[in-house]
Every structure is written in structure tokens, then in C-alpha cells.
């Protein structure tokens, strides 16, 4: 059984948008919209950018950068560990298999 999709009205910088989402994700959508609204409001209040499109792009870039930084912070060694595992696998592949020596 699929979850019912409902329309939710969100308000960002004096504009309303209708967004469809599953009922179980409604609160998360509203929270995300509030975060985006706040970030766009901060950028607009700085007065450096004019135009909703530019403000939206800057807010999106800021949020994406923050998300990537948090991902790196949460698991800073993951890329190093994956590289190390890859190198160890290559080394193991080069080692003679003792079972083959018996033949």
C-alpha cells in the first residue's frame, strides 16, 4: 500500500509554493522550507544581492556547502580508509595463494 501524497503550502520570502509530498514527510518539508526561508532572509538583509533568483542560488549553495562539510566532519577518514582497503586488496592479490603451491 502506497502512502497518500498531499499538497503542502510553504512560504519562502513572501511567496507561496504548493509542494506535494507524502504525509509522513510533511513536517520535514516544513522544517526544510523554514530553514531555506531563514537563510534567504539573511542573504537578502545583507543587501549584497538583488533578485529572488540570485538569493535562492546563494542560499542553495550555502546549504549544500554546509551539508558537504557536515558529511566530511561526520566521517573524515572514510575516503582514506577506502583507499587503504583498496591498496591492501591489491597487495593481497599479488601474494601467492599457499593452496596453489601444493599443486
Structure description:
The protein has 103 residues and is of the alpha+beta class. It has a single domain, classed as 2-Layer Sandwich (Double Stranded RNA Binding Domain). Helix content is 63%, strand content 16%. It has helices at 26-46, 52-74, 78-94, 98-101, and strands at 5-12, 15-22. The chain has a two-stranded antiparallel sheet. Helix 1 (26-46) crosses helix 2 (52-74). It is elongated and about 70 Å long. The N and C termini lie far apart (58 Å). The mean pLDDT is 84.
Helix/strand layout:
Layout: E1 5-12, E2 15-22, H1 26-46, H2 52-74, H3 78-94, H4 98-101
Helix pairs in contact: 1-2
Task: State the CATH architecture.
Answer: 2-Layer Sandwich
For the largest beta-sheet, the strand count, sense and barrel status come to: 2 strands, antiparallel
Distance between the termini: 58 Å
Mean pLDDT reading: 84
Give the CATH superfamily: Cell division protein ZapA protomer, N-terminal domain
Total strands: the figure is 2
**Which range best describes the helical content: under 10%, 10-25%, 25-40%, 40-55%, 55-70% or over 70%?**
55-70%
- Determine the strand fraction and express it as a percent band: 15-25%
Number of helices: 4
Amino acid at each position: 500500500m502506497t502512502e497518500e501524497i498531499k499538497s503542502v503550502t510553504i512560504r519562502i520570502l513572501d511567496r507561496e509554493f504548493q509542494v506535494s509530498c507524502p504525509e509522513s514527510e510533511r513536517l520535514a518539508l516544513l522544517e526544510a522550507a523554514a530553514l531555506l526561508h531563514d537563510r534567504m532572509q539573511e542573504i537578502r538583509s545583507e543587501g549584497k544581492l538583488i533578485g529572488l533568483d540570485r538569493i535562492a542560488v546563494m542560499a542553495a549553495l550555502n546549504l549544500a556547502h554546509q551539508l558537504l562539510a557536515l558529511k566530511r566532519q561526520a566521517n573524515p577518514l572514510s575516503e582514506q580508509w577506502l583507499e587503504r582497503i583498496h591498496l591492501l586488496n591489491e597487495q593481497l592479490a599479488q601474494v601467492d595463494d599457499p593452496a596453489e603451491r601444493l599443486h
